[in-house]
From TrEMBL:
GO molecular function per UniProt: glucosamine-1-phosphate N-acetyltransferase activity; magnesium ion binding; UDP-N-acetylglucosamine diphosphorylase activity
This protein's name: Bifunctional protein GlmU
Keywords of this entry: Acyltransferase, Cell shape, Cell wall biogenesis/degradation, Cytoplasm, Magnesium, Metal-binding, Multifunctional enzyme, Nucleotidyltransferase, Peptidoglycan synthesis, Repeat, Transferase
Location of the Mannose-1-phosphate guanyltransferase C-terminal domain: 261-343
Reactions performed catalytically: N-acetyl-alpha-D-glucosamine 1-phosphate + UTP + H(+) = UDP-N-acetyl-alpha-D-glucosamine + diphosphate; alpha-D-glucosamine 1-phosphate + acetyl-CoA = N-acetyl-alpha-D-glucosamine 1-phosphate + CoA + H(+)
Length: 456
């Protein structure tokens, strides 16, 4: 049985008051539409067709790498019209699953249950009971509790408005039957739109027993129309991630103040302080402590590592037992071995640092290969860029770099070498020796400090 997924995303999203098409607004760092696409992809459908309208080119280019089929709906004449436009794309499918680009948190389990119902019928709806059903299409049932139709809010009678079971819009349907029913809908209604929901009454007319399932939570079927709803679902999503982390053995100082924009894997007894942001793929091994205001992207943090407050770490590997920060920036392609200390106002880029080395204060280490047990003094700069090219600095095991030194790359500091404080090193420094470049100190004893002349 071939499955085609249809994602409706042609609406303008006026209430977002944005230049960005609504379905491209990010939730947990990812466009709303991508959430839906990824959930759909888990069913390995034959094809995922996105019905687009407003901001189409931008939507297409943003999701260019997701192997989607695109169908333009030039005029938005209603949800039924949108699906009619997409019918030619669905010709080879047996079943169709209809989703919405602005309903991002629908879960795979719920869709699984919905499609299971399609085995028993040609049409299955996802419905939910709401305390306040206002604005939604109402599910009308007969005295035997069978669904007979969906009535839109604007077309509903007083009695129908009192129904609190609503249409989420999400449905699974036989492709052949869908085509037949859509051929029979019109726009004789309050909004003069072609309603997809009109196929329900037609199905019942044809003797189909319309099935229904409920989602496991209301949030799954919430649509986003404005930024307040977007923020609400963002917090809901983040709270779920926080609950997962705690269940996995991590402690959070405040589960309402952590953001996961990607995938975070935690070991046991991890502690995460307030306002940490994790992006992409991040792994925190057992016993890791993350200080407040950390931003960590695509990184592996080894066992027992302590990240002190206000650190930014990206595309890096931090070895077990290391201590980073406060206020450190670890940039892409950095690999720190075990027990490395990186202190305040230190920036490290594209460098490897060996076991037990210390870079504790105010330094820049870029394009460098640092050995084990190295001590890099405060204010040391690897001068890796000559204005055109980047060059490498190599610092051998047990080397000691005096404070405020500049290592002008390409340059090699030998094993066990000592560089005197304040040196500008332009040639290789020999192993196990002292190398320094420093103007001789001078004392002028006859010198007097100038004094201000009193005003006349
Ligand atoms: C629709 C349902 C309603 C349901 C509600 C759930 C219909 C007629 N009504 O109402 O029963 O309770 O969703 O949120 O289906 N879209 C297009 N092309 C169009 C029109 C809409 O792509 O021509 C897309 C929109 O981008 C949106 C979705 O379809 O993502 C729903 O459209 P909207 O106009 O918001 O439908 P509602 O009136 O809310
Ligand atoms: Ca809507």
């Amino acid at each position: 049985m071939k499955l085609g997924v249809l994602i409706l995303a042609a609406g303008q999203g006026t209430r977002m008051r944005s230049r960005l098409p609504k379905v491209l607004h990010p939730l947990a760092g990812k466009p709303l539409l991508s959430h839906v696409v990824e959930t759909a992809q888990a069913f390995s459908p034959d094809r995922i067709t996105v019905i687009y309208g407003h901001g189409g080119e931008q939507v297409k280019s943003t999701l260019a790498d997701q192997h989607l089929d695109w169908c333009e709906q030039k005029e938005q004449l209603g949800t039924g019209h949108a699906v009619i436009e997409a019918l030619p794309h669905l010709k080879s499918d047996d079943r169709v699953l209809i989703l919405y680009g602005d309903v991002p948190l629908i879960s795979g389990e719920t869709l699984e249950a919905l499609m299971a119902r399609l085995g028993k019928s040609d049409l299955a709806l996802l419905t939910v009971k709401l305390e306040n059903p206002s604005g939604y299409g109402r599910i009308v049932r007969d005295s035997d509790h069978h669904i007979t139709s969906i009535v839109e809010q604007k077309d509903a009678s007083e009695a129908e408005l009192a129904i609190n079971e609503i249409n989420t819009g999400i449905m699974a349907v036989s492709r052949a039957r869908l085509e037949g029913w859509l051929a029979r809908i019109d726009n004789n209604n309050a909004q003069q739109e072609y309603y997809l929901t009109d196929i329900i009454a037609l199905a019942v007319e044809d003797g189909v027993e319309v099935q229904s399932v409920h989602p496991s939570s209301e949030e799954e079927v919430m649509g986003i129309n404005d930024r307040a709803q977007l923020a609400f679902l963002e917090r809901y999503y983040q709270r779920q991630r926080a609950d997962e982390l705690m269940a996995a053995g991590a402690s959070l100082a405040d589960p309402a103040r952590v953001d996961i924009r990607g995938k975070l894997v935690v070991g046991q007894d991890v502690f995460i302080d307030c306002n940490a942001i994790f992006e992409g793929q991040v792994e925190l091994a057992d016993g890791v402590k993350i200080g407040p205001n950390a931003v960590i992207k695509n990184a592996r943090i080894g066992e027992g590592v302590e990240i002190l407050p206000n650190c930014v770490i990206e595309d890096a590997e931090i070895g077990a037992g290391s201590r980073i920060g406060p206020f450190a920036r670890v940039r892409p392609e950095t690999k720190l071995a075990e027990k490395v200390n990186v202190g305040n106002f230190v920036e490290i880029k594209k460098s490897t640092v060996g076991r037990g080395s210390k870079i504790n204060h105010l330094s820049y280490v870029g394009d460098s290969l640092v050995g084990h047990s190295v001590n890099i003094g405060a204010g040391t700069i690897t001068c890796n860029y000559d204005g055109a090219n980047k060059h490498q600095t190599v610092i051998g095991d047990n080397a000691f770099i005096g404070s405020d030194s500049q290592l002008v790359a390409p340059v090699i500091i030998g094993d066990g070498a000592t560089v005197g404080a304040g040196s500008t090193i332009t040639r290789d420094a020999a192993p196990n020796s002292l190398t320094l470049s420093r103007a001789k100190q001078l004392t002028v004893s006859s010198w007097h400090r100038p004094v201000k002349q009193p005003k006349k």
